[in-house]
Amino acid sequence: MELKCVTVIFCILGATAIALASVEEPPKWPPVYIVEGSLHVPTSDIEEPFKAWYDSIAGRSRIDYYGGTVKTYQVPGQPHGEIVHIEVMPVSNGTVNIMHQFYVEDPGTLDIQPALPETKNMEFAGSETFMSVECDRYTMKIKAGNKLEINTLWVQYINPANQSTLRVPVPKRFDRKVYTDYNVFEHFYIDYYYLDPGHIPADVFEISIEKDGQILNSGLDFGINPMGNYIQYDRDHLSRRFQQFLFEYNKSYTTATEAEYRRDIFYQNLLYIQSKNRANLGYTLAVNRFADLTQDEMKAFQGRRPSTRPNSGKPFPYQRNEVEGNFPEQLDWRISGAVTPIKDQSMCGSCWAFGTVGAVEGAYFMKTNKSLRLSEQAVMDCSWAYGPRGCFGGSEVDALSWIKAVGGIPSDEEYGPYLAMAGYCHLSNMTLRVPIADYYIVPRNDPDALKFALFKHGPVVVGIESAKMDFSFYKSGVYSSGCSNMINHNVLAVGYGVLNGKPYWLVKNSWGIDWGNGGYILMSAEGNTCCILRQPVYVTM
Question: Which part of the chain is the Peptidase C1A papain C-terminal domain (predicted)?
């Protein structure tokens, strides 16, 4: 990580505002200041730059995030001067992003938002070299139940020219760690790069965007005051958001310890979601039923494993001149009925079965022009001899090899419901309604070949890397996150197109309709996003 120096402007410092009586007293911040820095959450790979204007005399504050992509204001409102929170952020109308203004009105409960931490209960913990400068360190420990919260502040003191008795506090870093009995801890820190404790021009607090009239509920959605989620010690607002989550997803826990553990995970995931959305990445995230799970627990939903058998899929049978230009500009197989409704694999690593069955359902539609729900449970129960391991994972090519060998798979209705676990194979005396002729491997890293295969043969099963947190909480837009080269999840490509100038693959997931955009995701078609072009496979009958 690159360390940056803190720039301090002394031109109009007032000694009465910042002089310290004793070296061991915690620092006292000026009543008016401008500060720049960046907020870091190491466990979530977040680095969020900000610039803040704080004026406690006039009762107003403003913080810009990600270079002004999102701006939050806390200013006196009408008619009695109660503080009003306003957020200005880009909103897509489907073609372009337009800046909109949202606001929270809750008289008597809102206040202006500092960007420097409260220090009155901090204790002097010694002097040390920090970020290559001499700093004083202050700490505050808060013990609550099985939780220990440790807040640490490093401050550099500077003597302005001709004022040797005045020690000006300059913040370097504020760090918070929360330890628990179950070895899960929360950690974030704020690095400060620039401080100007001087006059703030009045136009800084002028808002040129017209009010939309959209009110955000201050009791539930606190993405409108991001800094407060981090540096304030009172987190009642996050508790209210957690209660809403429990109600919305009908969640309950067996013990108080489990409830507290899940609440802590929810807090970290919520703050991650809000930070990523402020970055205006071109796609948005949202709280969903996974918001109380860790990323390690999400591995239970990612069951694609490499095949250990020779790949018996046939090579792509088309030449380059047969492919180029011989497909439409956009395609969506949902419209014609080639795609069955969104399914839910539950907490079982059976994505390989869902992706495979989706491709067979698509091939069935291409042959008969009829939609038929086929049985993932049959594939899970009966394909073990070919490599798959039920909820412990499998691969699409092994599953297709089994389907071809046994002559097809039964319908959902005939075989029985999905169990989210492997059961006894009971294919005997059933009508194997959907045999397949073969399955073909689309050339690697060839978007034109995948488009042609989709157009010519219907939905295609693909392997992707889905371990990133932003994939877990994807909601809308064209997903373009950086991924590793490790495929761990099977999904179904069902089309392609362009949104706001960004090409995408239309992908059906198997995590239920509350995930993503009704169960679907638009994955960027610029490059090999999350390995989607590594090994696409289509089925023929």
Answer: 327-540
